[in-house]
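Q: Two folds, back to back.
A: First:
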Amino acid sequence: MRLRSALILPLLLVAAPALAAEKIEVTRFHTPETLARLGPGAVEVVASPGFDGASLETRAWLDAVARELAERGIAGGSDRAMRVAEVRLTRDVVEGSEASRPRSSVSIGVGSGGGWRRSGTSVGLGVGLGFPLGGTKDRVAVENELAVTIRDRTSGEPLWEGRSTLRTGKRAADSPETAARLAKALFAGFPGTSGETIEVK
């Protein structure tokens, strides 16, 4: 047992600084009109349609988003809340030389009639990544994207949208630290400048 602990601890110490060194890309969308309707108050945090809201992994991401909203005066609420924050996590698996190339994506935000549009092979919250954990010499990276859309519950209209993206190794993709960092970066300087992409360390 002592030998195993002695081997694991150095690995954790090496992995944590590497993850912390990666920059997070953050983009937010909103309009003056939707922000006026957002304001403080209760909002229910839920998984986006099609994702497993009951899984332990999903709960970790929902809780991370709820904590950041609470710190900004947007308190958690029940299904009676007039607004709902839909949380979506997608992971793009990038292999070989592509793993070292810059990220790229296309987005359409609040006021443009759409949500996020991405290309590539992705998996969502509560779904396995689907690549081998060993036995390959090729470099594998995982592009983790946390997206949150705060909607008016009655009309379904988006009031605020944002996404934060972090490229990690395959093991760090499931780390609770990844969830916390993406959520914190997403709501840094909330509501943020609409349409601007920033980098957060």
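A: Second:
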Amino acid sequence: MSDQPWTSAESGSTAWLGGEGGLSATFLLPGDKTNSASACVQHTLGPGLLAAPPHVHENEDEISYILEGELGVQMGDQEFTMSPGQMVFKPRGVLHTFWNPGSTTARLLEFIVPGGFEQFFEEASHLLPGDAPPDIGKLVELAAKYKLTFDFERLPDVMSKHSVVLPGPPPQ
């Protein structure tokens, strides 16, 4: 990215988790451009996909603003569906996940405060290429680096209840 003070989805690089058509993260404003104060990525998520297992961030708050499609969200014990123009605040320390319950690709802006966690998506894209089952051990190791904890025990219930799957082939 150049040193210009503005950016667009066309100028940011994109990482795919679970292969193309899975969960994308386009780096609109990385933390290194804000002195780590914040970051902004644009996510896309294909129909019928769960973005990630339920998880907790120790260091970051996230704000998601829906641009296109629908987004199902679980935050703590609450579940709701969001539409374009709506946003949700996901505070650090609160278990959450999101999925696409619709029939079209969902697109959203994700604001991350403080910045830095957006690099998780770049690193995770190498562990979740979409053409091979993920190495869960390496993924958990990477998550620990970013003080992110997955709750794999809740994963089957979320997937079953909302008829969604994770992008890419299932773990073996």
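Q: And?
A: The longest strand covers residues 61-68.
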